[in-house]
Automatic annotation (TrEMBL):
PANTHER family named among the record's database cross-references: DIENELACTONE HYDROLASE DOMAIN-CONTAINING PROTEIN-RELATED, POLYKETIDE TRANSFERASE AF380
Domain Xaa-Pro dipeptidyl-peptidase-like intervals: 19-117
One GO MF term attached to the UniProt entry: hydrolase activity, acting on ester bonds
Keyword entries, A-Z: Hydrolase
Name of the featured protein: Xaa-Pro dipeptidyl-peptidase-like domain-containing protein
Organism: Colletotrichum spaethianum
InterPro entries: AB_hydrolase_fold, FrsA_esterase, Xaa-Pro-like_dom
Any Pfam family the entry gives: Peptidase_S15
Keyword Isomerase part of the UniProt annotation: no
């Protein structure tokens, strides 16, 4: 189970994992390299390919014979939320031994996500991204130049609105872990050029995509297109916006009920 952009496993994944374990499933959550409890430096630098490899490594680990007493290797489901849905979309296209995939409010096309941003915000973030790349790769700066992940709209951030700030506040880490509201500027370039939507037609397994009524953080149009392009794509439509799918949001109960129904149908035969 992989989280969204800049997010850590302690911030919002536990309610979903608990719901799945209550059904008798094993749920594995993890932090991407450089985030949360995972090692790696510099911190809070998002590289799409590195995060995708993290996902691959976790799946490889649960498939090892040593885990066979608690894992059925033929029933592994890749699960991603928000930006994590970008990785599950890529995995569905490349790993045909997965039983299925689930992505909620996913970003499946980085370019579409960037183009959805207001122009002024995009330009401000692009300036920081360029400065970070210049400082890191050409000037040898050790520390990245960071941008805020979330704001209420009064300052520049990757997600900048009152809705985003309120939703983000609901994802308070359940273990009290410090969770910086930042991400390295260079991360934005990595995101923009990642477009797994264009490969999802190669998938061969059922893929459930949960779609909110509106989504100001990830391209809803691209997510809908993902369902259409995936040979076994399924859509679950719920109310509210991007953050309403999490615990405390108006769509959480319908969201998790639909996911459990999907898993029962596929895995409990």
């Amino acid at each position: 189970m992989g989280h969204g952009i800049g997010a850590i496993k302690a911030a919002g994944l536990s309610p979903f994992a608990s719901e799945f374990t209550s059904e008798g499933y094993a749920a594995v959550t993890f932090d991407y390299i450089g985030f949360g409890e995972s090692e790696g430096s510099p911190r809070n630098v998002l590289n799409v390919q590195h995060q995708l490899q993290d996902f691959r490594d976790v799946i490889k680990w649960v498939r090892e014979p040593e885990q066979s007493d608690w894992v059925n290797s033929s029933s592994i489901v890749a699960w991603g939320s928000s930006f994590g849905g970008m990785h599950t979309t890529a995995l569905m296209a490349e790993d045909h031994e997965l039983a299925a995939g689930i992505a909620q409010c996913p970003l499946v096309d980085g370019l579409a996500g960037v183009l959805q941003m207001p122009l002024t915000r995009s330009l401000r973030l692009a300036t920081t991204a360029a400065a970070d790349i210049l400082g890191s790769y050409l000037l040898g700066a050790k520390e990245p130049q960071y941008v805020d992940l979330v704001s209420d709209g009064s300052t520049a951030a990757v997600m900048a609105s009152k809705e985003a700030a309120e939703g983000w506040a609901r994802l308070t880490p359940d273990n009290g872990e410090d969770w910086p509201n930042i991400i390295a500027g260079r991360s934005l370039l990595s995101i923009m050029f990642s477009r797994p939507l264009l490969q999802i037609h190669k998938s061969t397994r059922p893929y459930l995509v949960i779609l909110p009524t509106w989504d100001n953080e990830a391209s809803l149009n691209a997510a809908e297109e993902c369902v259409r392009r995936a040979p076994l794509g399924e859509a679950l439509r719920v109310g509210g916006g991007h953050f309403d799918l999490y615990k405390g949001g108006i769509a959480f109960e319908k969201n998790i009920a639909g996911q459990k129904q999907f898993l029962r149908r596929l895995l409990c035969k």
